[in-house]
């Protein structure tokens, strides 16, 4: 995010870095924090509630316990367009958090306009985070113009489960035993019974 151009004064653990990442196809964005002679500050904005929020709170507590020399502030905000507007406005005003969560689909809209700072890969490597830890297609979505702007937190596969016996009786399976491509509700429901 826009902010102090000085390098980070600490190296977060892998768990701490992952703690700042985003939910549905989420990602992490980092920027410089702290200044010479001051206690480094890490402000983290996230969108997590429910079980994800409870887990993130545990990660925050562990991070604070392991880094008493860092001033850590976490803020959970409502997700959606208001969050992204607030994030953009804070970056434009030079008051963006050092760590924020966002959907990967938003990265390209933020990074080329200088609202995100690239993440030094060597800093991640020093924290035990390697590119090889992630699926290539997911990692590649975090890179814009050859620079890394996020670290994936998770990804959500879209899966269709179906009962092959019932689908076969309904005529929905192809010769290979897999469900035929479905375009619309009517073909999916099959022919009405006579």
* Count of discrete alpha- or pi-helical segments spanning 4 or more residues: 8
Biggest sheet, open or closed, and with what strands and sense? 4 strands, mixed
The averaged pLDDT comes out at: 79
Radius of gyration: 22 Å
Beta fraction of the residues?
A: 5-15%
Which spans have pLDDT < 50 for at least 5 consecutive residues?
1-34
H/E element sequence? HEEHEHEHHHEEHH
Q: Assign a percent range to the helix content.
A: 25-40%
DSSP strand tally: 6
Strand line-up of the largest beta sheet: 1-4-2-3
Question: How far apart are the first and last residues' alpha carbons, in Å?
Answer: 63 Å
User: Which class of secondary structure composition applies to the elements?
Assistant: alpha/beta
Q: What is the 3D form? A: elongated
Topology:
Elements: H1 14-19, E1 26-30, E2 41-46, H2 50-66, E3 71-76, H3 81-92, E4 99-103, H4 107-110, H5 121-126, H6 136-140, E5 143-144, E6 147-148, H7 164-169, H8 185-189
Any overview of this molecule?
The chain has 194 residues and is an alpha/beta fold. It is 31% helix and 13% strand. The chain contains 8 helices and 6 strands, in the order H-E-E-H-E-H-E-H-H-H-E-E-H-H. The protein has a 4-stranded mixed β-sheet with strand order 1-4-2-3, with helices on one face. Strands 5-6 form a two-stranded antiparallel ribbon. Strand 5 and strand 6 (147-148) form a beta hairpin. Residues 1-34 have low confidence and may be disordered.
Brief write-up:
With 194 residues, this protein is α/β, with parallel strands linked by helices.
Features of this protein?
6 strands, four-stranded mixed beta sheet, alpha/beta, two-stranded antiparallel ribbon, 194 residues, disordered N terminus
């Amino acid at each position: 995010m826009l902010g102090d151009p000085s390098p980070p004064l600490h190296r977060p653990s892998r768990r701490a870095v992952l703690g700042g990442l985003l939910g549905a196809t989420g990602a992490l964005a980092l920027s410089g924090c702290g200044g010479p002679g001051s206690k480094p500050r890490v402000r983290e904005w996230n969108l997590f509630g429910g079980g994800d929020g409870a887990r993130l709170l545990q990660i925050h507590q562990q991070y604070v316990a392991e880094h008493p020399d860092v001033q850590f502030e976490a803020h959970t905000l409502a997700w959606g367009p208001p969050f992204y507007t607030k994030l953009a406005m804070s970056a434009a005003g030079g008051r963006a958090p050092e760590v924020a969560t966002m959907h990967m689909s938003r990265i390209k809209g933020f990074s080329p306009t200088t609202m995100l700072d690239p993440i030094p890969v060597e800093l991640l490597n020093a924290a035990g985070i390697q590119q090889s830890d992630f699926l290539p297609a997911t990692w590649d979505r975090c890179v814009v113009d050859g620079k890394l702007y996020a670290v994936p937190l998770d990804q959500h596969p879209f899966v269709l489960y179906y009962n092959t016996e019932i689908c076969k009786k309904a005529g929905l399976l192809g010769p290979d035993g897999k469900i035929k491509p479905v375009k619309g509700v009517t073909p999916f429901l099959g022919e009405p019974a006579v």
